[in-house]
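Everyone, study these two lines:
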Amino acid sequence: MSNGQGSPQGEAAIPPFRQVLGHPGPLWMLFMAEFWERFAFYGIRWALVLYIVAQFHGGAASGQADANLTYGSYLALVYAAAILGGYVADKYLGHQRSILIGAVFMAAGLFLIAVPDPTVFKFGLATIVCGNGMFKPIISTLVGRLYATGDERRDSGFTIFYMGINSGAFLAPLLTGWLANTVFGSEGMPAYKFVFIASGVGMLISLVWFYLGRSQLQGIGAPAPEATGKHRVFVVMLGTLATIPLVYALLAVGGKPLQYVLSALFVILVFLLMTEAIREGKVARDRVIAMMIIFLFNILFWMFFEQAGSSFTFLADQIVNRDLGGFTFPTAWFQSVNSIAIIALAPVLAWVWVKMALRNVNPSIPRKFGLGLLFNGLAFLLLMFALSSLVSAEGKIPFWTLVAVYFIQSVGELCLSPIGLSMVTKLAPSRLGGLAMGGWFVSIGIGNNLSGIFASAVSGEAGMTTASALGGYTFGFWTLFGAGALLFLTAPLVNRLMHGVK
């Protein structure tokens, strides 16, 4: 338990935190900081591809492929930047200061993309990328450090934290969609600028919240005594500014060239983690190998899950029947369906994992990941059915099908994503927790870049059609189903490599 109980050998002592609702008090502070950061992040998610087509391609459907590639590249770099951000936080800056600097850059980038210029827009995206690399992996690492390694509440704590992510993600599309389509614009001509400004304000709230609440951590994430100098903050900020043009260049090329860069980053990650693990011994080495195997399956999950912000957006806008008895369901609001499902189902799954653990029948980490892949595959199976058997004379599929797709994917996400965050804190070498968490986000980044390439193929040169969507989503189903089945079958081997970690 974290309330004063000693930690395992080699692990930092857990402070005697005040317990709130059965968990360390700082969990709830981190919950709200992440809520506002995710509000900012998801506030722009629904609008990006639609904005790129409308603003930079004159609304032509032929711009969908470019929009999908840009979106996938942006997301990939957002998560890939975590590898550098995690390393800097671990080795040079400290976790708390990394979060604060990251929040500053993310807020600045969100305000920049409100400028309707393609160059400034991509520089804004690059600034968000650099800020997120300093913020996102580190706040997740702090959650893990609130619990001792053997604390059975850890998975439950990460699931609660994941509810904070999805609470912000639920509210953001509703509010920013309302601002763009009703307050400052219309359904036919959304005012996307106010989507980006509102998200920037949300990021500033996250910055202030964490700044005021960080004392609750009682030194967790504070810089080491030899790293407290303010000059380090100055150096990191200059380095981040110097990195923004490089990220801009990667956004500009995108697609397959970016995939080569991300693959090289993944190889570097494997080398650094394996080098440290070999120093620590056979058990640490095997655990890192297990973690890398899971990372590979994680790539496939996010390659297809992240269609939500790209090809699913065009599907909702053009092929889904959004007429609900005279009310046209806004495209932006589909982005909140996933969050509603997560908020509703997360407490249920958190309770299920705890109860199954008490009965010693809790599924292993690989099997939970396998379930995640299979549920994601079932969502694509439903789309296959809808696009082949439920298309109306107007070329539309029923509204309920896309809503159901988001709900089914959400079950898969809950089986995989919060469990993955917890897994990294358990399997990573003790001195490279931030870097390992960065590796988790790099794997998501690779999947997101592949998602952009895949979505671009689904849209084709002339824009999405029923036939192109059916062909692409059929491929998605068979890939996910095969990967999930393979991981389920090989789970005992991966479990042996984990040496007792559950």
